[in-house]
């Protein structure tokens, strides 16, 4: 898969990545990551709190060692958890993640959640890592407008990415608009709303029109809005289908129909209300 977008620092990021949320550290995950790369995924997303970086790294390194890809063809993301948001703790968490992944560098490192005003010191650590070339790009996850605005007031490096929950039930138009104006790439997690949208009547009607799956329609809805997305599947056939979205275009009417499903419904916590 060669379709990429260019981040605000010039780094190229694949528009579809392979997500590993809620998958335990296991040989099955290592095999799934390897299969994903074999299938064509070049972006792999994990996080410190997932507890699966070691298996993700094993799958990545197996693919590299066997010559499926070179390391520089891959785009690897992980995230620092809220237990580690002081400057020193963030640096230590980064090094621990790098060791578990068995990698020399990361392509993208994110602050996983803003918490309650704990992220400013952590961002300074990310800036230091970036300036030392230990990571190619830095960004945030689950940041609302107020968090982004505060970050802008204290940062010397603009975040390259804001990874947020985003799907037709939660379109996040205000956050998207802010990020577009400020050249911050939006990346959607839980694009299928934990599978709840795959049986939606509106989405299934559109999928029948294009002879595509509901998942493919949702992925395409993201891509046509310039949004990166990270669907998750442990099934090889579904992995392939989730990449097979570049041979059709949703009509403007279909985009509107999907947008109209929005009711600001989250499958995860609200960053403004979830204190941890």
From TrEMBL:
Keywords: NADP, Oxidoreductase. The keyword NADP applies. Pfam families: Aldo_ket_red. InterPro entries: AKR, Aldo/ket_reductase_CS, NAD(P)_OxRdtase_dom_sf, NADP_OxRdtase_dom. The keyword Oxidoreductase applies. Residues 16-262 form the NADP-dependent oxidoreductase domain. Coiled coil: none annotated. Belongs to the aldo/keto reductase family. This is Aldo/keto reductase.
């Amino acid at each position: 898969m060669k379709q990429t977008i260019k981040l605000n620092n010039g780094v190229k990021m694949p528009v579809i990545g392979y997500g590993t949320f809620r998958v335990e550290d296991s040989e099955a995950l290592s095999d799934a990551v390897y299969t994903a790369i074999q299938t064509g995924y070049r972006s792999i997303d994990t996080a410190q709190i997932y507890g699966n970086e070691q298996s993700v790294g094993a799958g990545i390194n197996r693919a590299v060692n066997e010559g499926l890809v070179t390391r520089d063809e891959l785009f690897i993301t992980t995230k620092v958890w809220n237990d580690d948001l002081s400057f020193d703790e963030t640096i230590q968490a980064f090094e621990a993640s790098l060791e578990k992944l068995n990698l020399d560098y990361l392509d993208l490192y994110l602050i996983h959640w803003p918490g309650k005003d704990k992220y400013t010191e952590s961002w300074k650590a990310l800036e230091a890592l970036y300036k030392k070339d230990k990571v190619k790009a830095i960004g945030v996850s689950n940041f609302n407008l107020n968090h982004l605005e505060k970050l802008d007031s204290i940062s010397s490096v603009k975040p390259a990415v804001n990874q947020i929950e985003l799907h037709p039930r939660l379109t996040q138009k205000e956050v998207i608009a802010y990020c577009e104006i400020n050249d911050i790439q939006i990346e959607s997690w839980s694009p299928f709303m934990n599978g709840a949208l795959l049986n939606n009547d509106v989405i299934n009607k559109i999928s029948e029109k294009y002879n595509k799956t509901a998942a493919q329609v949702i992925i395409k809805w993201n891509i046509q809005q310039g949004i990166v997305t990270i669907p998750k599947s442990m099934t090889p056939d579904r992995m392939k289908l989730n990449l097979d979205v570049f041979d059709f275009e949703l009509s403007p009417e279909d985009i509107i129909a999907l947008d109209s499903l929005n009711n600001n419904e989250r499958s995860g916590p609200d960053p403004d209300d979830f204190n941890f």
